[in-house]
Amino acid sequence: NIARNNGMNIRMMTAYQQSLEDVFLDEIAKNQMEN
Q: Residue 22, class by beta-carbon neighbours within 10 Å (0-12 exposed, 13-18 middle, 19+ buried)?
């Protein structure tokens, strides 16, 4: 049970990091278009 919860947490953290990176790359792309 603990192992399963741990797997869920890791997957959620990975998804969270992924979405942060997407937002980050999006911002960079916008900034570069303006320059």
A: exposed
Total structural domains within the chain: 1
Q: What is the pTM of this model?
A: 0.58
Structural domain including 29 reads: 1-35
pLDDT in tens, 1-35: 777 888 889 999 999 999 999 999 999 999 998 87
Give the Cα separation of 20 and 26 in Å (integer). Answer: 10
Residues in the chain: 35
Q: Where are the alpha helices (DSSP H) in the chain?
A: 2-34
